[in-house]
């Protein structure tokens, strides 16, 4: 049936190409979505297989396509592979057609069932467990003239290695092609499109993909065995299919069947009829030494890399992969000079534009990963790590010049302190003069730069004058540098009001809060800075200061605060009260985090003592800022959450002898201010221990969970309901924060685990 419909599609598209204007046969479908109306041919056809188990990602996937479909004339074709969990109903509301397909263990057959319904000039296919972060570049491509000169568009697939989204790799995928009468999918699994495109446009657009994360090892093995079975069958049927041989080699590696991978790799290379310039042949050449690195045979791997460099014809992608993998192996062997050179080889090859007429690159296995900015940044990081580890600062200037400071805050921010360390250790002023101006062009990096400079200022007092002298010629007008000028004048004993005035004249004022935070405990300068601060900037400053403090530092600040009140003029005494309250809150949360640890008695601060101090601080602050009658209204929504929490908690503590009232009070307090869940959990844990101790004194046998345990479970039930409500309201960040606490309270609760998993797979970058 599928083959017949493919033939129909080819004939129909030929007629379209001749200008007949006829529409293709539609088959079974459900109307809906944002697609084309009338007979005008769409610019883009989008197709996707829909399967069971994707309810947590399918809507996110559909929503990510909405901006693209609004901007570009398009159609969305879904292929229902037998959904029974409601996923297809969710997706169908966005689609133009839904094709019914009986699953037959053949991904190409399923893909072709959707492809044969497509009528667009271009074709895009994706999976139901991935979604675009931003489609702006795709829109620009389809709205512009560039699409007329290309055969394919590549975007990145961000494959996460954990549910938190902290670890991932970026690799290019070729899933957008110009649609021709001959376009169709091949391969039972890891399907691909032919004909192979030659003119390719690369973009930085990417999709989030959590499909390689499994609930447990059993699920991973089940998925692996399914793939292996289909791939081995395909290779037996057609041993000359080099693409499927590559996929099977990769699957053997994933299963750690290294001998099978090595054997198949060598056999394929010896028997293939394809030329060495073929992308799959190139991939297999590189696989052999990579198997050695995966088995930690780094010396063998390096020797094989060097043999390939001497003897093999290597294309652009292969050279990138070889240099990258060789550098990693050399790092393991501690051969720093050769490692630095391999990193440089990669970066120089990355910047090389392939010659006209060179063989087309293909997103083969993990080959396309080597062409990504993500991989390039990893190579720079590898070089910087080698510089610091070996204390060889000669290559530092080269690697920092190659850093892509606009890539991502998370990866570039860690380069900033490394840059300062290299500068201090080497004395090479060029590291600052060449890099800081371009780093500070990136908005997200300005605060990390300030933090790193302050760290250097504190850590190396003997280098302060040198740092000031090297920064001065830059004449940068960022608040960072005006602030450091202020610190340097302090170091020279020139702490005058004029210095503060100069700071504010030179600063762009974006860093006032950060400046205040760093000067909080400076008796000389802080009062001068305080004169210029609003309460909004002041509270931001307090947050910045407290965020980085550990328990000892917070306790030190707490002890210092009473004498610090004298710094504040009468009209700003409320600022001081806010500082006391914010410090008490941080102190309380830290105390709650220590409940249950063996070291608690040695900390000198119990949870109840910290809570009493916090309630007193909140009352002192709220009584200064709010009308007395307002403070008597239970749960008044106009009051900040922390004040409502404090008053609810005070009422609960007053009824400690009445378990029912106490428990309800705890639940109400948690509901008012979910950020204080660790405190509520700590109090429940302390009460549970007290109950257990009391029962153990009365009986030598183990007793069932008491009232505190029941209150804990009741609180958890309420919080689950809050989480679901927050998700429905689109407040994913607040919901995830509560879920994290629930996971600590009830580590074995399956419902909490499922909610947490769903929160991760709905995307991390809100």
Describe the structure.
- The protein is an alpha/beta fold and 766 residues long.
- Helices cover 58% and strands 8% of the residues.
- It is built from 34 helices and 10 strands.
- The strands form 2 sheets. An 8-stranded mixed β-sheet has the order 3-2-1-4-7-6-10-5, with helices on both faces.
- Helix 29 runs antiparallel to helix 30.
- The longest helix has 22 residues, at 677-698.
- It is globular and about 85 Å long.
- Mean pLDDT is 79; it is low at 1-39, 597-604, 700-705 and 762-766.
Features:
766 residues, alpha/beta, eight-stranded mixed beta sheet, 10 strands, globular, disordered C terminus
Strand content: 5-15%
Q: What value does the Rg take, in angstroms? A: 31 Å
Helix content: 55-70%
Strand arrangement in the largest pleated sheet: 3-2-1-4-7-6-10-5
Question: Which structural class do the helices and strands define?
Answer: alpha/beta
Poorly predicted runs of 5 or more residues: 1-39, 597-604, 700-705, 762-766
Total helices: the number is 34
Mean of residue pLDDT?
79
How far apart the termini lie comes to: 43 Å
Please give the number of β-strands: 10
Shape: globular
Largest sheet: 8 strands, mixed
Topology:
Blueprint: H1 2-17, E1 44-50, H2 58-71, E2 74-80, H3 87-92, E3 97-100, H4 107-115, E4 122-126, E5 130-132, H5 136-143, E6 152-160, E7 168-178, E8 184-186, E9 192-194, E10 200-209, H6 217-237, H7 242-254, H8 258-271, H9 279-294, H10 298-311, H11 316-333, H12 336-350, H13 373-390, H14 396-402, H15 409-412, H16 415-426, H17 430-439, H18 446-459, H19 464-471, H20 479-491, H21 497-506, H22 512-519, H23 526-530, H24 535-547, H25 551-564, H26 573-593, H27 600-603, H28 607-625, H29 641-653, H30 659-672, H31 677-698, H32 707-728, H33 732-745, H34 750-761
Parallel strand pairs: 1-2, 1-4, 2-3, 6-10
Antiparallel strand pairs: 4-7, 5-10, 6-7, 8-9
Helix pairs in contact: 1-4, 6-7, 7-8, 7-9, 8-9, 9-10, 9-11, 10-11, 11-12, 11-13, 12-13, 13-14, 13-16, 14-17, 16-18, 19-20, 20-21, 22-24, 24-26, 25-26, 26-28, 26-31, 28-29, 29-30, 30-32, 31-32, 32-33, 33-34
């Amino acid at each position: 049936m599928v083959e017949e419909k493919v033939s129909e599609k080819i004939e129909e598209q030929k007629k379209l190409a001749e200008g007949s204007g006829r529409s293709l046969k539609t088959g079974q479908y459900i109307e809906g979505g944002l697609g084309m109306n009338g007979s005008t041919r769409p610019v883009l056809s989008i197709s996707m297989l829909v399967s069971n188990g994707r309810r947590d990602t399918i809507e996110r996937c559909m929503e990510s396509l909405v901006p693209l479909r609004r901007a570009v004339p398009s159609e969305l074709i879904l292929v229902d592979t037998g959904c029974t969990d409601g996923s297809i109903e969710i997706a169908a509301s966005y689609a133009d057609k839904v094709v019914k397909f009986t699953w037959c263990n053949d991904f190409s057959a399923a893909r072709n069932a959707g492809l044969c319904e497509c009528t667009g000039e271009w074709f895009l296919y994706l999976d139901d467990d991935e979604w675009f972060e931003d489609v702006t570049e795709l829109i620009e491509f389809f709205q512009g003239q560039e699409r007329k000169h290309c055969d394919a568009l590549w975007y990145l697939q961000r494959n996460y290695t954990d549910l938190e989204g902290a670890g991932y790799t970026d690799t290019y995928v070729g899933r957008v092609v110009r649609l021709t009468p001959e376009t169709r999918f091949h391969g039972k699994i890891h399907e691909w499109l032919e004909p192979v495109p030659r003119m390719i446009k690369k973009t930085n657009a990417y999709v989030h993909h959590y499909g390689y994360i499994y609930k447990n090892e059993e699920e991973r093995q089940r998925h692996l065995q399914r793939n292996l079975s289909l791939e081995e069958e395909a290779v037996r049927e057609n041993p000359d299919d080099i693409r499927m041989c590559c996929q099977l080699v990769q699957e053997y590696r994933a299963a750690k069947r290294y001998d099978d991978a090595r054997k198949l790799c060598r056999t394929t290379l010896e028997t293939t009829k394809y030329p060495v310039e073929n992308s799959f042949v190139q991939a297999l050449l590189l696989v052999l030494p990579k198997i050695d690195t995966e088995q930690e045979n780094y010396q063998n791997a390096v020797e094989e890399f060097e043999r390939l460099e001497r003897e093999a014809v290597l294309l652009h992608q292969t050279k990138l992969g070889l240099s990258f993998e060789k550098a990693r192996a050399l790092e393991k062997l501690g051969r720093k000079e050769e490692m630095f050179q391999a990193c440089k080889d990669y970066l120089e090859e990355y910047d090389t534009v392939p010659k006209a007429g060179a063989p087309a690159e293909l997103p083969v296995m993990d080959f396309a990963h080597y062409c990504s900015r993500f991989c390039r940044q990893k190579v720079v990081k590898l070089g910087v790590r080698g510089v610091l580890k070996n204390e060889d600062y000669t290559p530092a200037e080269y690697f920092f010049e190659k850093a892509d400071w606009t890539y991502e805050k998370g990866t570039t921010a860690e380069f900033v302190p490394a840059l300062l360390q290299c500068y201090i250790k080497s004395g090479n002023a060029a590291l600052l003069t060449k890099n800081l101006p371009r780093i500070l062009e990136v908005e997200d990096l300005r605060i990390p730069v300030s933090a790193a400079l302050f760290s250097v200022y504190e850590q190396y007092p003997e280098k302060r004058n040198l740092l000031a002298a090297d920064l001065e010629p830059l004449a940068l007008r960022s608040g960072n540098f005006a602030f450091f000028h202020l610190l340097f004048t302090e170091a020279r004993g020139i702490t005058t009001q004029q210095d503060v005035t100069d700071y504010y004249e030179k600063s762009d004022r974006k860093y006032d809060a950060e400046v205040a935070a760093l000067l909080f405990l400076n008796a000389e300068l802080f009062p001068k800075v305080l004169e210029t601060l609003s309460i909004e900037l002041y509270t931001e400053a307090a947050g910045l200061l407290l965020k980085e403090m550990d328990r000892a530092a917070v306790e030190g600040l707490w002890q210092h605060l009473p004498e610090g009140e004298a710094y504040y003029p009468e009209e700003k005494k409320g600022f001081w009260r806010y500082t006391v309250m914010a410090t008490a809150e941080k102190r309380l949360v830290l105390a709650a985090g220590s409940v249950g640890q063996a070291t608690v008695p040695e900390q000198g601060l119990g949870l109840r003592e910290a809570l009493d101090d916090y309630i007193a601080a909140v009352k002192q602050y709220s009584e200064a800022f709010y009308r007395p009658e307002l403070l008597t209204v239970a749960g008044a929504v106009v009051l900040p959450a922390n004040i409502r929490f404090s008053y609810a908690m005070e009422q609960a503590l007053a009824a400690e002898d009445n378990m029912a009232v106490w428990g309800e009070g705890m639940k109400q307090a948690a509901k008012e201010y979910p950020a204080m869940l660790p405190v509520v959990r700590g109090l429940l844990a302390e009460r549970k221990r007290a109950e257990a101790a009391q029962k153990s004194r009365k009986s030598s046998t183990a007793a069932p969970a008491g009232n505190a345990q029941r209150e804990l479970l009741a609180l958890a039930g309420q919080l689950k309901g809050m989480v679901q409500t927050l998700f429905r309201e689109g407040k994913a960040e607040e919901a995830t924060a509560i879920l994290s606490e629930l996971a600590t309270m009830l580590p074995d609760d399956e419902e909490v685990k499922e909610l947490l998993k769903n929160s991760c797979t709905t995307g991390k970058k809100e």
